[in-house]
Structure formats: C-alpha cells, structure tokens
Specification:
By secondary structure, this protein is of the alpha/beta class. It contains eight helices and five strands, in the order βαβαβααβαβααα.
Length: 236
Amino acid sequence: MKTIVVCSGGQDSVSLAHRIAAEHELLGLISFDYGQRHRKELDFAAACAARLCVFHQIIDMRSIGSQLSGSALTDDVAVPDGHYAEETMRITVVPNRNAIMLAVAFGVAAARGAEAVAIAVHGGDHFIYPDCRPGFIDAFQIMQNHALEGYASVKLLAPYVNGSKADIVIDGARHGTPFAETWSCYKGGMRHCGRCGTCVERREAFHLADVPDSTDYEDPDFWKAATEAFRAEEVR
C-alpha cells in the first residue's frame, strides 16, 4: 500500500518508517510541531526521511498546541522523572493530540492519493494515553471512513498497537533502524536524560529485547529502580 507514516523522530515511529519502507510503498513522513519542548525530535524525523529517500512534511500546529494547555510537553511545567505507571506522568498528556494529528494526516493522505496512514502507538502507551489504545484506533478508522466516503479510502495502520516497546526494538532491529538516530527524551536537552518516563521506557525496552542500546544517557542506570517499583497495566 502507498503509505504515509506519522513520524515524530522517536524510536517507535522511525522503526515504523523502516518497517513500512520494507513491507509497503512508503510515500513520505508527516511530523507535527505543536510547540513541544523536545522539538529537536523533528530533526531526527527529517533525517529518517532523507535516509529513506521520501518527502518529509512538518505541519505547524503551534497555535493549536498553545491552546492544549496543562501538559509538561507544551507548558512551562517540569517533566517528571520515573516510570509511565506513576500518576505523575499524566502531566505529559497533550489532550486529543493523536486525534488531531491523525485527522490532518488522513487529509494529506487523501489529497496525495495514499492508501494508508501508519502510526506507531503501542501497548506500553495504553496506561496513560487514551488516544493510543486499540479502541481509539478502531473508532478513528470508522470515523474516517465516513469523513472520506466517496472521496478516498485510507486505512489506518497501527501494527504495534497490541505490542510492547521491546517488540518495537526487536522489529526495528530486524528492519535496520539506526536507533542512535532517534530521539525520545521529553526534556529535549543535549543528551537523553535517562530519567523521564520515555527515557526509562526506552532503556527498559532495549534491556527486555536483548538489543544493545547505543543511546547516550545522562543517567543510564536510573531506569532500574524506576522499573522495579512500577508496572504499567495495559488499558484497552
């Protein structure tokens, strides 16, 4: 299928881009600038597109993102350290983010004649992000079928939605993903902090997948204590 990948520049979406390039016809990558403090991730998305020889389009959503207040990713609020299972991590939720981004991506896909849009949501996100769960993915597809009826038929691909972060690492390694050329840390510093929820999850995933982690962390061992204390239960 002719497919457009929603790519943040993170480990999951870059792995997905490499998978789609191997299994389908990758048309290009779409990224979103919604005022996130870790905007540097977009540079890694651009590098991925160049590596795979496809177009890369950044959608400017900063005016919309400024209205989605209350998140540590967009406001002047400290990004908490620890495991995603901690209640404090709810401060990283950007309300309706995936629904907004996917709606735009589907419009672009229809205009460009793409047959599918792919997104890298996964099981580890279910606990804290409602717009990463299977129910949301299924409902969004139904909504888009109605929205584009008679104009285009675009399928939503979410191959990792029932898998773990470790599964993505294994899949990414299988498809030659250069993990060092991806960015996850929500703090957006010079190096991955190793302490925020996404850094902890990233570090744990490589460990569980038994794949070498080439990421440069400021605190490479914090994840051990963080993952011993909390286990995220999957929410569907």
